[in-house]
Structure formats: C-alpha cells, structure tokens
Specification:
Elements lengths: L1 H20 L2 H29 L3 H14 L2 H16 L3 H29 L8 H19 L2 H11 L3 H11 L1
Helix pairs in contact: 2-3, 2-4, 2-5, 3-4, 5-6, 7-8
Length: 174
Amino acid sequence: MTTKILAPFRFLVDWLIRFIEDDGLASAGYLAYIGLMSLLPFLVFVFTLLGLIGQADQGAGIIDMMFRFMPTEVAQTLQEPVVQVVGKASGGVLTPSIIFVLWITASGVEGIRTSLNRAYRKRETRGYWRRRANSSILVRSFQELSSSPSAAWLSARCCGNRPKRILISAFRWA
C-alpha cells in the first residue's frame, strides 16, 4: 500500500536525479540563450525588409508594441539602437542578417539534438560539419515549408482568413 502512495514521489526523485545528471538546466539555459540571440538578427532582417518594401510605418508599429511589453529600463536602453537600425534600412544588411539568423537557428537545432542525446544517453558519432549541414538543411526545409502556399492555405483554413491569426499561426508552425 505504501509503495502505491510513494510511487509519484519516487518518479519525481528519479526525474530530478536524471535532470541533474544530464545537465538539464544547462541545456535549458543554452536553448533560451540561442532563442534570444536569434531574435535580434531576425528583427534586423524584418525591419530592413519592411524599410525596403516601403512599409517602414509597419516596423514602427512593431517597435511600439514591442516596447509596450518591455520593462521601461530595457525599452529605454534599446530604443536608440533599434531606431538607428530601422532608420538605416539597406539591402547590404538584409543578406548577412538572414544568414546569421539561419546559422543561429541551426545552432538551436544542435542544442536540441545535444539535449536529447544527453537525455536518452546516446553518443553522437557524426562529425561536427555533418551535423551542422544536417541542421542547416533541416532549418531551411522548415523555412521553405512554412513559406509555401500549402502553409498559407493551412493557416487560412485554421484561422478563418483573419490576418493577425494567420501571422501568429505561421510563426507557430515555423
């Protein structure tokens, strides 16, 4: 009888031990860091693209919304650099920013792969460049899939042709 009562606690203790042994906290921190690190080049890419296609006012709206949800100290610190980046939209920034975003995103895929290998106690046998190439191809495939007409159709089908929900759904799928 007591073993049935203690079973959930035993599960939690086993989970905590595995979490510590497999560096779960370090893996979670790395994935959070990669996520935040990929955000800046992505925003540079989006704002530059909006400036080049003549929709800089949309970029200003995104910036205002972004600053509304930030703590005031962070918003004050970031306001000047972000306005400078948006104000100097040029095609020369577009390509390096998208390449950097793809590289960082592939690093995130590598982080997930490493975390899963640790969790399942598997040893990676492939070389570094082969894993990077595999991650880059995977990221590029997901990018193509998310920007394809079928993704737009699926998004419109799921969201009822409401633009804001379609955009949110597209980001969820990407």
